[in-house]
């Protein structure tokens, strides 16, 4: 991967990598071992809104009045994230403004950038994203090594902001990245398989290596290995399944094993792939029946399962491979040198609240009563709910949604070795392209 040196040379790869977050193309994670990362119950549940109640904090930091004054001065906060199926435009900015109004008496404007424009400008101008106007960077876990090396992010939980980050203590420690340099807000998000049971034998697909079945020739759409983080994550999952089956010897980080796996993929999987493409192509070709299998994010799979045509026809089913589904969860980070440091922490605190993480749709475990605060469709909810940040929050998910998620999502997650991937993504891309 091309990087920016400590003296300031531009790194084009970082923007390309982040474009792949939940729907771009480029980057590269790798997988190491199918270890479950089930979080434990946190000692304190996050508040519904994440509001502060005390005028003066008991552990230092800013008073509520000081926070309000800072927010009044800052006025706005800009977030680089993904689109949340349109909720980033229709629901979340107004909800955040209401949160800051209710909590501090200050309506803060949230600018939600899902275009990568500021990151591209920062790259081209060799500046920090904060100098281009970004305050919070939301991207997947595998981007952390590059963001650190670029010096683009700063610690979220500086003690001076303790009284702003009222939901921080309720975050399960498994979701705190590098002592507060980032915080994961998705309980789970993996790459898995969705298949049409009227087009392929779904019972014959137990693990990733089963996709080599000649009966699947021309029936798969997936992401490419060269230059695409998602395609490489899927490759490492396939390599894991090959090692488990004894088809390939070694480990997923061994160069000879990787070469054997790439050669196997080229020979056995590529003939079955109708097209290497993004999720829009997958949706269209699954609906038309032109293909029978797509490999993509579980959030997109839930969208396919809940689409009108599948609710009517009931033909698409999720498949969670035995070797695990490679996970890569969205992670919040503060842009280094942000001009809106208090608003940035207030936004992160709200994004760690029950209100945001449940997308406002909950079901009381005791009474069964449902609340759909934002009047979402089921499809919107299924693409916005990722399991929360502790076990107590997961108990609030509506019962109707259970069939769209694996019974124990953490148990199916294949953990990714992001440091290894950052060092080897370009090498693996080039090696695959060089295969005959």
Give a description of the structure.
The protein is an alpha/beta fold. The chain has two domains: 12-28 and 39-188 and 329-397, D-Maltodextrin-Binding Protein, domain 2 (3-Layer(aba) Sandwich), CATH 3.40.190.10; 191-326 and 413-434, Periplasmic binding protein-like II (D-Maltodextrin-Binding Protein, domain 2, 3-Layer(aba) Sandwich). Helix content is 36%, strand content 15%. The chain has 18 helices and 17 strands. Strands 2, 3, 4, 5, 6, 7 and 14 form a seven-stranded mixed β-sheet that branches. Helix 8 (229-245) packs across helix 9 (255-268). Mean pLDDT is 87; it is low at 1-14, 19-44 and 53-58.
Which helices and strands occur, and which strands form pairs?
Blueprint: H1 12-19, E1 31-33, H2 64-74, E2 76-80, H3 87-90, H4 92-104, E3 109-113, H5 117-125, H6 129-132, E4 136-140, H7 144-150, E5 153-154, E6 176-177, E7 182-184, E8 191-196, E9 220-222, H8 229-245, H9 255-268, E10 273-276, H10 279-288, E11 293-297, H11 298-305, H12 308-313, E12 316-319, E13 325-326, E14 330-335, H13 341-351, H14 354-357, E15 361-363, E16 370-372, H15 378-382, H16 391-394, H17 409-412, E17 413-416, H18 418-434
Parallel strand pairs: 2-3, 2-4, 9-10, 9-11, 13-17
Antiparallel strand pairs: 1-17, 4-14, 5-14, 6-7, 7-14, 8-11, 8-12, 15-16
Helix pairs in contact: 8-9
